Each structure stands twice: as C-alpha cells, then as structure tokens.
C-alpha cells in the first residue's frame, strides 16, 4: 500500500503534539473532559501563558479545538477518536516494553 503525503503529515502532526510532556498532560486532561484554560493551568500546575503556548501548538496541529462559550473559551479534543488513539498508543507502548524510558534526544533526534 502506498503511503500518501497526507498520511505522513497527519502522523507527524500527532507526533509533534506528543513530543512535549506538557502537551501530553494537556491531551490526557482533555481526554477526560473539555476544560477552560484557567482550570487546565491550575490542574496541571503551569502558568496560563505557558499553557496558552501549548494550546496554540495543539490547535495548529489540529488536535484540539477552542469552543466559544460566551466570553470564555473551552478546549476539547478535535475528535473523540483522538482520545481512543491516545489510550491505544499508550497501551501498545506499555505492552511492548513497560520498563523502558526514552533517553534524551541524541544527535539524530532519536530516542
């Protein structure tokens, strides 16, 4: 089967979203339930500015969406299947080698 550029782009966007521990924490929190930025920042123990930067990245990747609620904005996963994908990916990685940790990036950017 031929891999399309759009398939590669989609996986690269998902990879970029998962490449940062804070973004992973945001995605896991949003997997549980949609949330307002102030609540997310408090739950994750990070500044609103830092959270805002990560939410912008996740929006740019197409992974989360901002839903206006009057004067506030609520964030949620762009599609419920992303929550299932996070669960499946986490489960698969843990099933393969639960005791592994990813070392710092080497010169080639690989774990």
Automatic annotation (TrEMBL):
- The HTH arsR-type domain sits at 4-100
Q: Which domain of life is it from?
A: Bacteria
Lineage, broadest ranks: Bacteria, Bacillati, Actinomycetota, Actinomycetes, Kitasatosporales
Subunit organization: Homodimer.
Which Gene3D superfamilies does the protein's record reference? Winged helix-like DNA-binding domain superfamily/Winged helix DNA-binding domain (1.10.10.10)
GO terms (BP aspect): response to cadmium ion; response to lead ion
Q: Note the SMART domains from the entry.
A: HTH_ARSR
Q: Which NCBIfam families match?
A: HTH_metalloreg
Q: What is this protein called?
A: HTH-type transcriptional regulator CmtR
Function summary = Metal-responsive transcriptional repressor for the cmt operon. Binding of cadmium or lead causes the repressor to dissociate from the DNA.
| Any Pfam family matching the protein | HTH_5
Check the UniProt entry and state the signal peptide residues, or none.
none
**Tell me, what is one Gene Ontology molecular-function annotation carried by this entry?**
cadmium ion sensor activity
Q: Which key words are in the record? A: Cadmium, DNA-binding, Metal-binding, Transcription, Transcription regulation
